[in-house]
């Protein structure tokens, strides 16, 4: 048993099947007779002596019979032979043979090596009993398997001989199913080397090998024999890579064994990696797991995505497999995709909480920013809990509430993960819960919004969720309509149930009661809102190189983004999602093109690409100003992702129209791709005010005075839901020579509506985003409302202090709609009514007489006096409803009086019968609030040509 024991020790200590450290000890040109003898031993289960009388060898002479194997790195030939009870060891370099007459059950071992000639004179050690048992499988079969593995490892010639002598693969198969562990180990090696040799044809037994290898791995995993698991899976992986039949066999009968093996070895990276790669191969070769199998695997795949011990390769395979599952089963796979999103949000929140606690202990921490982060984390944590409940409830709706077994509830493993454990216990208690597609979609919407808020300004968080596969989820949410399909299925089921109930009622003569599942009562899921926020998160991530690589490689996605930006996709009529789609393409393709240009380009061409953040909205993204994108990917309409390397400036960047005189090699291409008519000489940037928005603040109004009750910010929100968005519909027609942007930032009237950053932080953040987008590299006019005017003034002040001269120099005009240059009565009121209002940080800075506001106004005044910029101001004249109490009593006030709306320089326009909310919402093209602004823009354009 010594040989078998040694082999077990050796093979048990191999770290990985892919890193076998020992060198093959047998020659590269083995004698076929030796190989045949080893194969025979394995097939027969031992050596069966058939000794001719008179001690004759195979050639009729007197001699020995057995297996002769040459050992490398020496001159020894190890001979195992037997004649009439005599076992002899033969040294090929000796002039004579030492023969030891064995006692009954005797053993003789003698190995001579030229490096140690003294051993030739050492008498043999006699150990009774071992070689007499050579005919049994305890020694002969392990030895033969070892020899076969070494030969297979040594050379292609040896592998060819093995394949030729074992055409039906039965010898290898016998080794794979042998009871000895070392035989299985070496048999797996033989199978692996034969299968990896692309010059050898596959034999008919590969499918059987594959099943046996998987069974070996599974059985070994139960006893934590990791070395055997690894070597078996390494051969198994090669088998399914090469053999379509093997893949079908595994997909049909082997998924459970793979799954159980993965469960038994969660801490072993190499095992998990082999299983992940194998399953990925199965899913990517046109085979499909059943829905039930997919659900069972989700409890393994999601930990592969999020577990820290798992390698990047395992994670990537798991994400790819999950993507195929979502593609195959659409609405039925929603619990899996929702669960994926839930774990992702929970993981990110855990990291953010730890970072926040660490940051709080650091000196100089921005307390206001910390407050905002804490507020976002608290809100996101609540949403994560709601999302976890929605996942469990949706799973219960689809699969029932019997979670006792995997067969009855295939998602039980996934829902045994955090954060689903608590909701799953409640599911078992509450048998009468109700959930539908609309509820599930709403939870997903909140989850995407929360994830975006948490990661919007955190690049490490963005990178983390990208690694966790958020791109797969976003692609699914944008390009597919799983929730709409689920709602359609629910409506169909409800109508069928109602028909059945009516049939029963009519046959029994009873009237049917109202059906709570009536299809007419089913709510429509907010899929349009989900797409919008998914597109927003995609824009946030589109500045990451690895995200850009993913999108550029996906022709379907690129085409969808381009068509969505032009409003050609059903459900993409929303102005925000169109802007997000175009901004994502610009971010991605500009960088893609810049990375592919030749090294001899001029410095002008190597300038950083503009990055459009999600808070910068592109108005009318289908306009000619952005058409140079088509030159970057000329076949984008056909789904091609090829790029034109000769038009690096033509990606909607701020300096698209500039071409250096000495760049003769590309000047022709530039002029052809981006004609002068398409290059807008001016940027117009709209900046909203209190609780406004990039679109709702600038819509038309039917009445110049607000009659709706409620908080002023609520009025603006409601007013923005109706009417024409005049910067997008009127301005491009009346003033086509400009790129139009609209900014979004957070600022609330009171902390009842959520936290917000102070003026300085808001302005600083927007300044960075604008400069990154290239806004300020060409002449720009800012059109502002209320607080937006102060934000722009603060940006200019900060840009001057930080020596960002281009931004200040290129700002040639400011338009202020009801801007509180010297403070607002609305900001004064909360400080006098502290029991009613709790002012947000930004609002506190707007109090009348604020020294900060005076300093900012003096700075802008100096720029105006120097002729660097022109100023146009509008003033409201009517009071605005602020709060409505019980009984219809309303508190109204003039938010920005004329003495605060006029900065003391520039042109002032007083808007008759107009309140604060509607000062930036013209009634028609002849309304002074529009006409004066249009005239001002024409004046700025004429100034450029002077």
Give a structural overview.
The chain is α/β, with parallel strands linked by helices and 946 residues long. β2 and β3 form a beta hairpin. The strands form four sheets. The protein has a seven-stranded mixed β-sheet, with helices on both faces. A three-stranded antiparallel β-sheet has the order 1-2-3. A two-stranded antiparallel sheet has the order 4-5. The chain has 36 helices and 14 strands. About 20% of the residues have low confidence. Residues 513-522 have a biased composition (Polar residues). Residues 503-524, 638-673 are annotated as: Disordered. Residues 652-671 have a biased composition (Low complexity).
List its salient traits.
single chain, 946 residues, alpha/beta, Rossmann fold, 7-stranded mixed β-sheet, 3-stranded antiparallel β-sheet, 7% strand, elongated
Q: What topology does this entry show?
A:
Layout: H1 2-12, H2 32-44, E1 66-70, E2 77-83, E3 86-88, E4 108-109, E5 125-126, H3 140-154, H4 156-165, H5 170-176, H6 181-196, H7 206-222, H8 226-242, H9 244-264, H10 269-284, H11 291-306, H12 312-329, H13 334-360, H14 367-399, H15 421-429, H16 437-455, H17 459-467, H18 470-479, H19 482-508, H20 527-541, H21 545-553, H22 555-565, H23 575-594, E6 616-618, H24 629-632, H25 664-673, E7 682-687, H26 712-719, H27 726-729, H28 731-734, E8 738-743, H29 759-772, E9 780-785, H30 787-801, H31 805-810, E10 811-817, H32 825-832, H33 841-844, H34 851-865, E11 870-875, E12 880-884, E13 890-893, H35 898-901, E14 907-910, H36 928-944
């Amino acid at each position: 048993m010594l040989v078998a024991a040694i082999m077990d020790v050796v093979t048990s200590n191999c770290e990985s099947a892919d890193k076998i450290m020992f060198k093959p000890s047998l020659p590269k040109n083995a004698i076929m007779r030796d190989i045949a003898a080893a194969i025979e031993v394995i097939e027969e289960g031992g050596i069966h002596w058939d000794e001719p009388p008179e001690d004759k060898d195979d050639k009729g002479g007197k001699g020995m019979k057995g297996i002769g194997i040459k050992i490398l790195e020496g001159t020894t030939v190890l001979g195992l032979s037997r004649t009439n009870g005599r076992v002899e060891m033969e040294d090929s370099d000796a002039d004579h043979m030492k023969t030891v007459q064995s006692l009954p059950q005797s053993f003789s071992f003698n190995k001579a090596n030229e490096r140690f000639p003294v051993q030739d004179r050492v008498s043999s050690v006699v150990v009774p009993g071992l070689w007499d048992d050579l005919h049994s499988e305890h020694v002969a079969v392990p030895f033969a398997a070892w020899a076969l593995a070494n030969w297979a490892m040594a050379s292609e010639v040896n592998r060819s001989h093995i394949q030729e002598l074992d055409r039906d693969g039965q010898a290898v198969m016998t080794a794979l199913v042998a009871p000895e562990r070392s035989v299985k180990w070496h048999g797996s090696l033989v199978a692996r080397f034969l299968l990896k040799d692309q010059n050898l044809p596959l034999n008919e037994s590969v499918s059987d090998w594959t099943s046996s290898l998987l069974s070996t791995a599974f059985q070994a995993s139960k006893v934590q024999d990791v070395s055997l698991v690894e070597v078996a899976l390494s051969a198994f992986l090669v088998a399914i890579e090469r053999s379509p039949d093997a893949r079908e066999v595994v997909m049909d009968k082997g998924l459970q064994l793979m799954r159980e093996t993965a469960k038994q070895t969660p801490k072993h990276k190499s095992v998990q990696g082999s299983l992940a790669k194998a399953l990925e191969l199965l899913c990517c070769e046109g085979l499909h797991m059943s829905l039930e199998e997919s659900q069972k695997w989700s409890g393994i795949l999601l930990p592969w995505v999020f577990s820290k011990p798992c390698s990047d390769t395992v994670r990537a395979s798991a994400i790819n497999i999950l993507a195929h599952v979502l593609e195959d089963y659409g609405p039925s796979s929603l619990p899996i995709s929702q669960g994926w999103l839930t774990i992702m949000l929970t993981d990110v929140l855990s990291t953010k909480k730890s970072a926040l606690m660490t940051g709080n202990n650091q000196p100089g921490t921005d307390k206001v920013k910390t407050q905002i982060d804490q507020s976002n984390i608290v809100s996101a944590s609540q949403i994560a809990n709601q999302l976890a409940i929605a996942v469990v409830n949706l799973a219960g709706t689809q699969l029932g509430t019997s979670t006792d077994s995997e067969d009855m509830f295939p998602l039980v493993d996934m829902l045994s993960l955090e954060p689903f454990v608590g909701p799953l216990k409640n599911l078992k208690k509450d048998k009468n819960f109700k959930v539908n597609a609309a509820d599930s979609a709403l939870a997903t919407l909140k989850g995407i919004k929360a994830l975006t808020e948490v990661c919007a300004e955190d690049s490490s968080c963005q990178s983390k969720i990208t690694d966790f596969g958020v791109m797969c989820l976003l692609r699914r949410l944008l390009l597919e309509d799983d929730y709409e399909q689920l709602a359609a299925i629910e409506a169909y089921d409800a109508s069928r149930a109602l028909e059945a109930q009516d049939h029963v009622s009519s046959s029994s003569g009873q009237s049917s009661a109202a059906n709570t599942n009536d299809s007419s009562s089913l709510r429509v899921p907010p899929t349009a809102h989900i797409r919008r926020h998914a597109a927003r998160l995609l824009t946030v991530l589109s500045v990451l190189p690895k995200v850009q690589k993913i999108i550029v490689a996906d022709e379907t996605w690129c085409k969808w983004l381009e068509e969505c930006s032009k409003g050609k996709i059903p459900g993409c009529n929303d102005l925000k999602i169109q802007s997000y789609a175009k901004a994502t393409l610009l971010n991605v393709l500009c960088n893609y093109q810049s990375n592919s240009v030749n090294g001899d380009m001029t410095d002008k061409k190597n300038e950083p690409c503009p990055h459009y953040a999600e808070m910068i909205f592109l108005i009318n993204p289908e306009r000619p100003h952005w058409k140079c994108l088509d030159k970057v990917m000329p076949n984008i309409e056909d789904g091609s992702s090829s790029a034109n390397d000769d038009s690096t400036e033509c990606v909607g960047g701020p300096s698209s129209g500039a071409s250096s005189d000495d760049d003769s090699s590309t000047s022709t291409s530039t002029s052809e791709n981006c004609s002068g008519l398409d290059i807008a000489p001016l940027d117009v940037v709209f900046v909203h005010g209190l609780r406004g928005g990039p679109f709702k603040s600038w819509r038309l109004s039917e009445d110049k005075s607000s009659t709706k009750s409620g908080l002023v910010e609520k009025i603006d929100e409601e007013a923005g839901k109706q009417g024409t968005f005049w910067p997008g519909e009127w301005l491009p027609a009346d003033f086509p020579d400009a790129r139009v942007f609209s900014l979004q930032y957070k600022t609330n009237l009171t902390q009842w509506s959520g936290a917000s950053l102070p003026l300085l932080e808001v302005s600083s953040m927007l300044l960075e985003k604008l400069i990154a987008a290239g806004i300020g590299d060409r002449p720009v006019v800012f059109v502002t409302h209320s607080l937006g005017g102060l934000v722009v003034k603060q940006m200019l002040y900060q840009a001057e202090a930080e020596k960002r001269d281009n931004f200040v120099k290129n700002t040639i005009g400011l338009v202020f709609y009801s801007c509180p240059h010297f403070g607002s009565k609305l900001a004064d009121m909360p400080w006098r009514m502290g029991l009613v209002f709790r002012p947000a940080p930004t609002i506190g800075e707007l109090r009348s007489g604020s020294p900060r506001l005076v300093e900012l106004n003096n700075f802008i005044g100096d720029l105006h006096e120097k002729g660097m910029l022109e100023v146009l101001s509008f003033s409201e004249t009517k009071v605005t409803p602020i709060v409505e109490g019980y009984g219809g009593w309303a508190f109204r006030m003039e938010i920005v009086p004329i003495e605060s709306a006029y900065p003391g320089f520039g042109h002032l326009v007083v808007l008759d019968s107009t309140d604060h909310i509607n000062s930036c919402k013209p009634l028609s093209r002849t309304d002074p609030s529009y006409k004066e602004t249009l005239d001002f823009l024409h004046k700025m354009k004429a100034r450029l040509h002077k």
